Structures are given as C-alpha cells and as structure tokens.
Amino acid sequence: MTRSSRSLGRDPLQHGGSASRPSGAGRRSGDGRRAGDGRRAGAPVGRRGSTAKTEFALPVGTTPALPAVQAFSELEMPAALLTALSSHGVTTPFPIQSCTLPNSLAGRDVLGRGRTGSGKTIAFGLAVLARTAGRRAEPRRPLALILVPTRELAQQVTEALTPYARAVRLRMATVVGGMSIGRQAQALRGGAEIVVATPGRLKDLIERGDCDLGHVTVTVLDEADQMADMGFLPQVTELLEQVAPGGQTMLFSATLDRNVDRLVRRFLTDPAVHSVDPAAATVGTMEHHLLHVQSDDKSATVAHIASRDGAVIMFTDTRHGADRLVRDLLANGVKAAALHGGKSQPQRTRTLEQFRNGQVTALIATNVAARGIHIDGLDLVVNVDPPTDHKDYLHRGGRTARAGEAGTVVTLVLPTQRRDMTRMMATAGITPRTTHVSSGDAELTAITGARIPTGIPVTIPNPVIERPRYTGPTSGGGKRRGRTAHDKTRTTQNKTRTAQTNTSSRRARAAA
C-alpha cells in the first residue's frame, strides 16, 4: 500500500468508508494513534449505535455524478501535480478524494461529507490547485478562497497544500487572527492566487482595502458546520456574496446539520453530493468509554491517566480549567501544557510542536483543538469535562482513530452528569461501554494505560518568549523601546548636566 498523504502537512487521509451516496438521509460522522498502551485485548467496547437525528436530508442533484476513480493518474490534472503526488508516494486516493475529485475538477459544485481525518483537505485542495494552475493573481485580488473556522485548521490546510502549490507555481497566503495583519496585507499586496482564511480576519482585510474577492472563481468552505456554530454564518454569507458570480463552490464538513443547510441552499447549484462515512461518530477502530468517577477522586484519576506511557489530549470546558489542570499535572510530574484561545497564536503553534516532538505528553485543551489538529499516532482522547453538545463530542473524539488507526475516547462522568451523558450518547448515535473506576484501578489501567504519577514536579520551557510591544514611533521615525529604571535615571542625569551647562554658558556671556 502506498504511503498516505498524512505525511505531508499532517493531512490524515486514509480510512475505510462506504461508496458515494448521491442522495438519502444525512448522516453523522466522527473520528489517530496505534493501539492503546495497556488496553485490554478483546475487551467489549462501545460501538456505533443509532443514527444521529439532527442532520438535514442531502440534496439530490439533477445531474448524475461522475464515477469514482481508483488512482490519481486517472484524473485530468496538470502533470506537475501528478508528479508531485507520485514523488510523495501518494498514488491511491482515499474514498472522499476518489468520489469528489472527478466532479470538482470538472467545475461542479460539490457537497462532501467525510469524518475528520478522511482526507478532505487533499480532496478539495487538488481541485483548487488544478483549476487555478496557469493563472496569475493581481495584487490584492486572489483567484481562489478556502474558508476555515480556526487558525489551527488554516495552518494545517496551508501546510498540506504548499508542496503541491509549489509544483504548479501558485502562491498561497494564510489570513487568520492572532497574527500580524500587516504581514498578511503585505502578502496579499504581493499577489497570492490562493487565500486560506478565517472569516473574521478576511473581513478585516477587505474593509482595509487589502483584499478584493471579485476575481475569486473557486471557493471552498471547510468545516462549515463549525463556522455556523461559532456564529460566523453572517460573515461567511457576506464573503460568499463578494466572490465572482458563476464560480465554483465546494462545501466539505464532517457533520452536516441544519445550519449548514442554509449555506447549501443559497450558494451551491446542483451540487455533486458525496457522503463517504457513516453518520455516527465512530468507526470500527474507535472505542468509546464512559468512566463513572466520584468528585473527590476525579483529580487523582486524571493524574493517573495523564501519567500513561504515551501522549493524550484532555479536554476541559474553560481556559481557566485548562490552566489549573496543567499546574496540577506539572506538580505531579506530568509534562503538560495548555492550548486554548487565551494563548497567542505563536504560543499555540509552539505548544503543538512541543506535543508533537514529545516535550509535552499531556495536551490540555478547550474546544479550540477539537478540529483542525492532527497528531500522528494519537490513541487516547479524554473528556475531563464532558462536552455540552454531541457535535463537540464528535470532534473532540476526532483527534484519535484517524486514517484507519485505533483510538479510544474516554469521558469522565460524575454522578450528577450521568443522565445528560446518556442522552448525548444517544443523540450522537453511540453505545459506549460504561465502567465505574477510581484512581489506581486495574480497569482504569486496562482502558487508558493509567499509571501512578511520579509526584516529582516538572517544568516545560516557555513556548514563546514574547517580544517587547511596539509603543509608537519616536521623533526620529524609529521604534521606542520600553524604558527601564536605569534609562530613566540616565535621562534625569542628562537633563541635570544640560541645565548646568546652560547656566554656565549664560554666566560666561554675562561676564564677557
């Protein structure tokens, strides 16, 4: 089997899936790391249950979809793109790619649903690159637009597509909040054929006059349901209304609820519809566990799980909760770090890199990491705080069991949370395995690989040393740095010397 594209820009592509479904009821999907450390072989595990109930019926196109392909070489793409794919060992498309690319390359609107980690990035990315290749963008006027909900997902998409964009000499610009808007404006002024953006920052740049979408002929909405959930729907609608009329629109997502239905009905024309994943949140390689714990033992249970031999992502409800848990785990000897919206983008990027290279083994995150984050080989996700929405559960869990690998999703449930979690599992279409555990239990170790913490405090290097803030221009046009106490003392001394010199000069003139 050929090497998968997830080695490029961390885009996880391969997984099992059903054939294309051009019509029928919408279904729900969920989602990377080898089989778990210490997981009991042959243990009964939670599997997919009934179909989730909140998705809209997928539209039935009037034009039949083109048949799927078995190899990238069957597609009409620039030779340079095919060569780049082959040089990276990517020759066999994954299901969502084989189903959607024949239609997207032909210029049709596409509605694609595949779980996180199924290869959606390359599915729409190759179509964007192929249909834009050979054209040159004017300053501030991109030719293709990829809209995503989060900074992390924008960076992942850019990383995954950059090798192929270079092969066909296309320039890409990433436009997200939390980064220098001046640099992003400069990249647009220099000319970029493809822009990967979050809605808010792109809107800011348009209002500044740094970007004009009037020449965009290919538009992609990735993870459209999250953009709707995050309140971006008005901004997305406003942006889509600015692209060139008659262009191509592709919408890809892991879940398709009725918020997305509004975008589909308004902006997609006779789309080719492809759904290559089951509706429920799980796949055959994903296990779901509800671990019933007592409130006075929950912290110890979390510390035991985080001390496992292997990486883990743990989700909390709030930034404060994530920071507090990191402090507790560091004090217990666990190499932990937080990832949430209160961190600057450079800090978030560096923390993810520390997690990937093993400097951090327990990543404590809020829902900011629930989409767009791919960590090779991650086999355990823990909901320290149960999610409040079944879609959040799906996408938190989507950090594991990616690309056909095995993974476990564990949710810690207090007695007061049991009824709500039972209801949420039913809505998500999952029948989990429920176990009563406490810290130190053999059952806890069997499920999660939990170990007794060392209790020896550890520290993690600061992910980013922030530079001094720019406080405005000086009279000479330079930058003013922050004044220290030493600087102020020297200034006072200089003023005193100047005053003494002026007094001496006046006396000398008077004597003359």
Automatic annotation (TrEMBL):
Residues 285-448 form the Helicase C-terminal domain. Pfam families: DEAD (PF00270), Helicase_C (PF00271). Residues 16-26, 496-505 have a biased composition (Low complexity). It comes from the Bacteria. Coiled coil: none annotated. CDD domains: DEADc (cd00268), SF2_C_DEAD (cd18787). Keywords: ATP-binding, Helicase, Hydrolase, Nucleotide-binding. SMART domains: DEXDc, HELICc. Residues 70-98 form the DEAD-box RNA helicase Q domain. Residues 28-40 have a biased composition (Basic and acidic residues). Transmembrane segments: none annotated. One of its GO terms (molecular function) is helicase activity. Residues 101-274 form the Helicase ATP-binding domain. Residues 1-55, 458-512 are annotated as: Disordered. A motif (Q motif) lies at residues 70-98. Belongs to the DEAD box helicase family. PANTHER family: ATP-DEPENDENT RNA HELICASE RHLE, ATP-DEPENDENT RNA HELICASE RHLE-RELATED. This is DEAD/DEAH box helicase. It comes from Catenulispora subtropica.
